[in-house]
Specification:
The chain is an alpha/beta fold. The protein has two domains: 79 residues; 188 residues, 3-Layer(aba) Sandwich (Rossmann fold). 46% of the residues lie in helices and 19% in strands. It has 14 helices and ten strands. The strands form two sheets. Strands 6-2-1-7-8-10-9 form a seven-stranded mixed sheet. A three-stranded antiparallel sheet has the order 3-5-4. Strand 9 and strand 10 form a beta hairpin. Helix 4 packs antiparallel against helix 7 and helix 8 crosses helix 9. It starts with a helix and ends with a strand. The structure holds S-adenosylmethionine. The site of S-adenosylmethionine has 24 residues, from loops. S-adenosylmethionine binds next to loops.
Length: 281
């Protein structure tokens, strides 16, 4: 079936009950809570997959018993439903505060740092953190090591992140020309992140819905602009799990519109003006 034909028959493609079944499926697999009235999102994001698979509707997709067992198809559907919007040094203040306040303070007592970027999308967040450590080292007599673990649910986006190559539009979003010159080299029509920034970051797949126990405890966690997609219960579970994986006195950055839900007693809140950061108790 052509994409145009699918588009012209949205009602057959996705009726109310199949929207509800699809929402349950997505929530169970990824934690992503679509809420109400997001039919357009499902239609837009899945029509290509259904066209490729020769399937006529979401109902048919879900009825296909193999979806739950067809690992590749299931992953493709979940990948398509993730929102990967990101940019370099997003919101500015977490990175300014890290470089100007936290690293000077924390470096008085340690020189090796562990960082977790737990919904890293195409890599802008963990690579921005790596650049901040590099910039700190340029200015400080004490040199810091950093080991950044970057995880995400989406395989497609993780593969892009690992490459560390960005088109002109992506590098224009949040990078100063000074940082572009310092930390990237031109590679054909793309910009490739330089090795000394890249090698501090290791990428792997992890679903925040699952309990994640790392062999190392983290000093700094970036969990930004992902909790907004989850129910309150799941947010609480994730924050508690993050806390378990942090060193006491470590720092957690959430997105500008996100909060600790009901897990506030695990952290002290510090105003960074603008914004806040949370210190693990
Ligand atoms: C909007 S991006 C935020 C990227 C980055 N943290 C930032 O603030 O710019 C949200 C990311 O969360 C990921 N994500 C969604 N559900 C997830 C889950 N259950 N576990 C891990 N990552 C998830 C998506 O794949 C996407 O890359």
């Amino acid at each position: 079936m052509s994409i145009d034909k699918l588009h012209s028959s949205n009602n057959d493609f996705l009726n109310e009950s199949s929207f509800s079944d699809f929402s349950d499926f997505l929530k169970k697999e990824s934690g992503i809570d679509l809420g109400k009235n997001k039919q357009y999102l499902v239609v837009t994001r899945l029509k290509k997959i259904l066209a490729d698979e020769g399937i006529q509707s979401i109902k048919e997709l879900l009825e296909k018993k193999h979806v739950l067992h067809n690992h590749q198809l299931k992953e493709r559907i979940i990948d398509a439903m993730t929102t990967n919007e990101t940019l370099w040094f997003r919101d500015g203040y977490p990175y300014d505060y890290l470089k100007g306040v936290l690293l000077p303070e924390m470096s008085k007592i340690k020189s090796s740092f562990t960082v977790w970027s737990c919904a890293c999308s195409s890599g802008q967040e963990p690579y921005s953190v790596s650049m901040v450590f590099n910039e700190f080292n340029q200015l400080s007599t004490k040199k810091l090591n950093v080991n950044i673990t970057a995880t995400d649910l989406s395989n497609v986006i993780l593969n892009n992140a690992k490459k560390g190559e960005y088109d002109k539009l992506s590098v224009a979003r949040g990078l100063s020309s000074d940082r572009l010159r310092k930390f990237f080299q031109e590679s054909g029509d793309k910009w490739a992140i330089k090795n000394h920034i890249k090698e501090c970051v290791s990428f792997k797949k992890a679903n925040l819905k699952d309990d994640h126990f790392s062999s190392l405890k983290y000093d700094i966690v970036f969990c930004r602009n992902v909790l907004i997609y989850f129910s309150k219960d799941l947010k609480n579970k994730i924050i508690k799990n993050i806390h378990k994986n942090m060193n006491k006195g470590g720092y957690l950055f959430l997105g500008a519109s996100e909060s600790l839900a009901d897990a506030g007693d695990l952290f002290d809140l510090i105003h960074t003006s603008p914004g806040v950061v949370y210190r693990a108790k």
